[in-house]
Design brief:
Blueprint: H1 6-58, H2 65-102, H3 106-116, H4 122-134, H5 137-143
Helix pairs in contact: 1-2, 1-4, 2-3, 3-4
Length: 145
Amino acid sequence: MSYQTPNESSQIQAKQDDDQLALLSILWKIYAGVLSLITCFGLIYMSIGVFLGTMIGASPGSASKGEGLLVGGIFTFVGFLLIAISGAAVFFAWSVANNLKNRTAYTMCFVVACIVCLSFPIGTAIGVFTLVVLSRPTVKTAFGV
């Protein structure tokens, strides 16, 4: 039975940490790509809102143009909210991926991982895995914390 010296075991742990942080960085980039699809739904909603607002309000048989503008405005506003919220989520997910790769902004990575845990099921999985890795003392040392 061979025993490892403390130096060898710390080198093995550092290698595992590097591999897991690299894998998490890739997973966060994939997650950002999935979140960017939600931005496309926001664009669709905005397009429907503009279409409804112009077509219903411009039709010759419509009772009031205000109804068409209201419905179109609601769809456009919901689409804008989807774009803004999902755009922010994509930005933070991509930032976490880069920060994990560069070993910077430990607190931001930790906070975003906690928030992403609320997004079931993919966000929960990636958030928990990130929190587990970031909680290790060797990883904290790598981040300079």
